[in-house]
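TASK: fixed-backbone design
INPUT:
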């Protein structure tokens, strides 16, 4: 077994990874295989360090005493040499000139050191910037130790500066002012360079540039394929529709006008001064954006408008008759919106760009979203599209499918299957709008930019793919018994309960961890100041909200029967989507929380499905 230098429990000085600063730590353990020490900082953070990154406390104390004891002798020596009467005048002048040059060099060194200190101070983590610049522990005691170490390093230069003060060998005021301006410019240029480099997206998702380029075409093609399949008598996935509809039949100006009317009507409801205004989570620069919470009011106003149209005998099943044209119109609008978003993002400041969409590659940034929170005045485009046009439109489409089923099959009442699908999905949408404030803590708002991925997803994928079960039932009615309907209802309620209670625990804990109502929740502290829940639903599996989502998705598809797999596409897609998100969350959390996340994974081994995955 190799010799180890430091024993368990020994208090030493450990270098924080990625910096030159040392903090007081305690050795927790030593791994004989990796030759790494597990050390614990005063704020509870645990990290694995190499032996070369650990030093004993005595070495710092020795250096401090050595520099302080040698300084007076250097001062007395320089004073005695400068006042020596035995030196000729010419020699004194040459010595004075050389001394002045030497002191100027030292002065420049001190200024450059101060620049480095200022840069380190700029990247010191605080409550507002720990997510983006997580470079040092949050403990204030650790910062005191770093100041001592830096003072030891700068001690000789500080002594020389005192000598300069004693002899009054200072540059002229103009030169001094120029040096200060130069130093400030150098500081901010260095800060800007480091910040720009650190904000670049280094790890690409979705297959990188090639993958995102293919998805821009593959996603619309998938939507159109699914809708064409639902129109066929035999909607088997391998029974490709033939012949394909003519291109001119997929576009109708009137349909596009109706879509624009719908979009801007929801925008009008969004701008109404009703509902409370809340602040979102802090951005990387510490700023908090304000959001008006009135999505549920917009839903009520939309329901009143639809009810008025039905009262005046408006044929809502017009949506069913022109469903493909509406999907094409929405896809065209989302593409135009994405192009606008990318063009405007080119002028956005660096701190307003999305962490995941700032790679420097056009296709990738266009797809994932280059700007984090694009706004026109106070109108937040991403937040608006996230819940309003697509999600409320999903409910309107389902209602149109219900009415179309009654008209096509000459029914006085909709089928039990159609009622279940409409009711389950209506509950989901109403819940999202009622708990609208919770979306402000999701990765869509805090991390992902607004580009083609979210624009197409919000305006096309959600309303036209999520309504696939209702669209399927119009052309392929399925009869189910009341006991089967009751069982499916219970399954949906179980999924909804898991989904809602898990999200409520997470959102309440994120907003106010010190809330007395949450005192029963246990968590693992992290270096960022946040905690990882290990009780409640989050102690059962790592992503209980995803588990509830999948159970509900299954309940939405079961009323369609088992004749074809097409209605279950949503379940398959949802599982794939959530597994991808889960993998992304795992990677993100591992980078962000380090050893705390590893401890959490050991405590909660299952990701989505208990005892399975």
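OUTPUT:
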């Amino acid at each position: 077994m190799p010799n180890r230098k430091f024993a368990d429990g020994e208090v030493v000085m450990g270098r924080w990874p990625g910096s030159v600063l040392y903090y007081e730590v305690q050795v927790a353990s030593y791994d004989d295989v990796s030759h790494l020490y597990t050390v614990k900082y005063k704020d509870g953070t645990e990290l694995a360090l190499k032996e070369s990154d650990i030093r004993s406390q005595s070495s710092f104390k020795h250096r401090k005493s050595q520099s302080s004891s040698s300084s007076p002798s250097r001062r007395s020596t320089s004073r005695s040499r400068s006042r020596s009467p035995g030196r000729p005048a010419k020699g004194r002048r040459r010595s004075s000139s050389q001394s002045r040059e030497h002191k100027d060099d030292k002065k420049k060194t001190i200024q450059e050191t101060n620049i480095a200190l200022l840069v380190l101070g700029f990247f010191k983590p605080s409550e507002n910037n720990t997510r983006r610049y997580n470079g040092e522990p949050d403990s204030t005691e650790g910062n005191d130790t770093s100041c001592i170490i830096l003072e030891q390093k700068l001690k000789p230069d500080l002594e020389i500066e005192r000598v300069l003060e004693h002899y009054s060998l200072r540059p002229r005021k103009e030169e001094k002012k120029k040096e200060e301006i130069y130093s400030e410019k150098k500081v901010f240029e260095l800060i800007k360079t480091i910040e720009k480099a650190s904000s670049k997206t280094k790890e690409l998702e979705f297959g990188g540039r090639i993958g995102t380029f293919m998805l821009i075409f593959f996603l619309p093609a998938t939507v159109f394929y699914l809708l064409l399949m639902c129109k066929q008598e035999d909607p088997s996935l391998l029974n490709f529709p033939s012949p394909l509809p003519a291109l001119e039949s997929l576009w109708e100006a009137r349909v596009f006008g109706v879509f624009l009317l719908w979009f801007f009507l929801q925008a009008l409801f969004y701008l109404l001064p009703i509902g409370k205004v809340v602040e979102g989570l802090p951005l990387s620069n510490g700023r908090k954006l304000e959001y008006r919470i009135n999505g549920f009011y917009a839903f009520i106003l939309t329901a009143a408008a639809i009810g008025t149209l039905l009262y005046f005998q408006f044929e809502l099943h017009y949506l069913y008759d022109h469903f493909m044209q509406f999907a094409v119109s929405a896809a065209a609008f989302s593409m135009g919106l994405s192009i606008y978003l990318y063009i405007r993002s080119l002028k956005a400041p660096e701190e307003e760009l999305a962490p995941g969409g700032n790679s420097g590659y056009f296709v990738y940034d266009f797809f994932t979203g280059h700007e984090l929170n694009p706004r026109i005045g106070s109108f937040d485009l991403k937040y608006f599209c996230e819940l309003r046009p697509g999600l409320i439109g999903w409910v309107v489409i389902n209602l149109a499918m219900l009415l179309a089923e009654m008209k096509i099959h000459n029914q006085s009442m909709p089928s039990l299957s159609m009622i279940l699908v409409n009711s389950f999905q209506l509950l989901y949408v109403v819940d999202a709008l009622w708990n609208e404030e919770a979306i402000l803590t999701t990765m869509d708002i805090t991390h992902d930019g607004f580009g083609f991925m979210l624009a197409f997803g919000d305006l096309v994928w959600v309303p036209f793919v999520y309504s696939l079960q209702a669209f399927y039932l119009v052309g392929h009615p399925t009869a189910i018994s009341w006991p089967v309907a009751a069982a499916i209802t219970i399954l949906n309620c179980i999924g909804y309960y898991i989904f809602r209670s898990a999200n409520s625990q997470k959102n309440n804990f994120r907003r106010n961890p010190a809330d007395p109502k949450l005192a029963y929740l246990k968590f693992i502290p992290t270096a960022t100041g946040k905690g990882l829940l290990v009780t409640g639903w989050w102690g059962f599996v790592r992503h209980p909200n995803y588990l509830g989502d999948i159970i509900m998705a299954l309940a939405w598809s079961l009323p369609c029967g088992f004749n074809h797999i097409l209605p279950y596409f949503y379940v398959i897609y949802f599982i794939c989507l959530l597994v991808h998100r889960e993998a992304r969350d795992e990677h993100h959390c591992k980078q962000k929380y380090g050893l705390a996340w590893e401890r959490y994974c050991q405590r909660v081994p299952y990701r989505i499905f208990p005892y399975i995955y």
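COMMENT: The radius of gyration is 32 Å.
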